[in-house]
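Internal tracking record. Fields below are filled automatically when a chain is submitted to the structure queue. Please do not edit lines marked as system-generated. If the sequence contains nonstandard residues, flag them in the REMARKS field before resubmitting.
Queue: standard
Priority: normal
Entity type: single polypeptide chain
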Amino acid sequence: MRKEYDFSKGKRGAVIPSPGKTRITIMLDDDIIEHYRAEAESAGIGYQTMINTALRSAIAAKGGRKAGDRPITVAMLRKVLREELHAG
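SYSTEM-GENERATED OUTPUT FOLLOWS
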């Protein structure tokens, strides 16, 4: 190890950006956090991932879509059409 390091050009924040995700601060009740932490620990996944899944399911239920369904994009539509035309 060096005795000194130059951090003058260092930046705060995530080392690797997460595309499609935004860091926010949110206040949740303690019992909600504890519930998801316990569930996540037993499932072997992160509690924030479980909260995200629960929110996505709530949105899907309200909008009538299945959990995990996403609006189709032009790129996805083109891919599906190419596959169908090629198979036919």
